[in-house]
Request: fold
Amino acid sequence: MLIDKMRNFQRDVMLFISGVALAGLGESVFNSVFNNFLNETFSISGLERTFLELPRELPGFLIIFVSAALFFVRSRRLVAIAMLLGSTGLMTMAFFSKSFHSVFAWVFILSLGQHLFMPLSTSITMSLAKDGETGRRLGQINAIRNASMICGSFIVFVGFHWVHFNFRTAFIVASMFYLAAASLFLLMEPGKAHPPSVHLKFHKEYGLYYWLSILFGTRKQIFLTFAPWVLVSIYKQPTAMIATLLTISGIAGVLCQPILGRAVDKIGERKILMAEAFLLIFVCAGYAFARALFCQSIALVVACACYIADQLLMSVNMARSTYFKKIAQHPD
Reply:
């Protein structure tokens, strides 16, 4: 009986790792081409690019209601639904993006899947970790995700350089990766069912975590929206360049994230989060003042370095996850 449980556990771990890797491939392909797609297809302004973040980030808020409404769906099944939503959003974007405003609907569907996937992937990862090794397991999964993002960026680089990819092809490829990830997640054991309860609760004991989440969301939004857009619209960088930067970030992440995970376990979340905040000051200053302080070529190098550092610092979010696990009133 114990041996069977161990085998099922190891099987679930391998299926989950493989699914996360495929999801990382899809995400990387999409991220590598999306800003260039908007710029080259619709020639939008910075203000219009900002408006597009409304349908992209609205699902991040609505997810509290979506997850509450789907409480009866077990998490390992819900993560498959998230991937199916992402795949649907990408496929519709590939074939039905007739105007800039039509993209709003497809981005909303894709983003709903992505935002549903993010907390589920973290919670499932922690459920597959041994006591005292949560940070280590998160670091491993994030490293695998980074490795897959390297591969995804490489696919885009090769595709646009030598295989005559266009944006539609890239979105279809990303959609297929999401669909394959959903298939693997469906093969996992469903896990425990959640009993009916009031899911939307606020606890004063979690006040600091709420503030950390708000600050991280603000910082993440600035990075996702404006960091690649600056490179595309201000520095006129092509799709292949964005893919190259994501590849470099991925390689650095593979090396750094397991170390970061162990550091979270050993020295604690507080010091890690303080170090991240301090380093972000220099990253933001680099974005803001590079063109004012340096010539165009050096400013581009500085902006690219800030982009890579920014991408790496996003991984510190694992410290917020392990902190919440420590203060959670109930394991569920």
User: Anything to note?
Assistant: The longest helix spans residues 2-42. The mean pLDDT is 85. The CA atoms of residues 81 and 304 lie 35 Å apart.
